[in-house]
Amino acid sequence: MKEIVVSAEHKYSVKFVDGWRDQLPAIFTQYSNHLVLAPASLRELLELETVAGISGKIYYLPDGEDQKSTTVLAGLWDLAGELNLNRDSVVIGIGGGATTDLAGFFAATWLRGVDWFAFPTSLAGMVDAAVGGKTGINTSAGKNLVGSFHSPQGVIIDSGFLKTLPERDLCAGMAEVIKCGFISDPFILELVKDYQANLDELIFRAVAVKAKVVSEDFKESHLREILNYGHTLGHAIEKREKYSLRHGEAVSIGMIFAAQLSVDLAGLDQGVLEAHRALLSMLKLPITYSRGAFEELLGFMNNDKKRRDNALRFVGLSDLATPTWLESVTTPQLKAAYERICS
Predict the structure, then answer these.
(1) Cβ neighbours of residue 120 under 8 Å, at least 6 residues apart?
(2) Do 142 and 175 lie in a common domain?
(3) Which of the following is catalytic: 65, 176, 238, 249?
(4) Catalytic annotation on 179?
(5) Is residue 205 included in any domain, yes or no?
(6) Most CB contacts within 10 A, which of 187, 206, 263, 338?
(7) pLDDT in tens, 76-129
(8) Same domain, 118 and 98
């Protein structure tokens, strides 16, 4: 079994296993009570498998981003009270990135913080959402604007979950893997060309990139912002689309935009931008967006968490695997770059 250690407010392991169910008994025996959270789409799997035979509660959530709401969170607080969850209890999130985001935030807010574990079932969850301790929910103002840094006690990654993942979701998750290649580990970009054959190594290398960054800057004071490459515009597009796009699909467009900004403002070679287009297009991910959406997207981006002193900031690249910060980017500069990526 391979594992990667993350150093945050405490150390925890990301374990790469063949058989996620085998990890549950050891977790359950450590705690007096537990609550398993999972999306409704996993109901059949969990009720037929080992989880159903272990005492405790499985609570099913709406699928996708619909679960990351104040309404769902309030329901979980009520349930926790009914179940008498105390500080000797544990929360286990089994699902995609939305589930681990919610499970972690629920754990952070109940009794000012109880332990939790993440069992990501999607590629995006494995390489991004479940690792790093950033938890949160969405509001009408934007994505993940309400949240907390609350690291799990452990992350269990079983790539077997991906065997039944729809191709669209697999490719959307691959956008986060490609991001890690452009900001830190260029060998990922070679492996992606045959991603199905190299899936386990791609997951491991992407997690290694994130674990290293998080261990150096847990609270996102500076370095950790590089993990948001492509996310500023990506989150705005997600909101505009009412989350009908997969997160990785929106981030794909956002990376093209960030790379174009980098060509314009940071001297990035045009060839790196073209490499973005080639890899993302190979995965049938979107790389352009509606020309007429700029003003609306600008409004959403103005709520971005990286905004400082009333100025928009972007993570860009000055070269392959060399992130840079684009400070105080003006609206004309944003619009010019945006129009260059529009079809």
Answers:
(1) 95, 96, 97, 100, 126, 129, 130, 155, 157, 161
(2) no
(3) 176
(4) no
(5) no
(6) 206
(7) 999 999 999 999 999 999 999 999 999 999 999 999 999 999 999 999 999 999
(8) yes
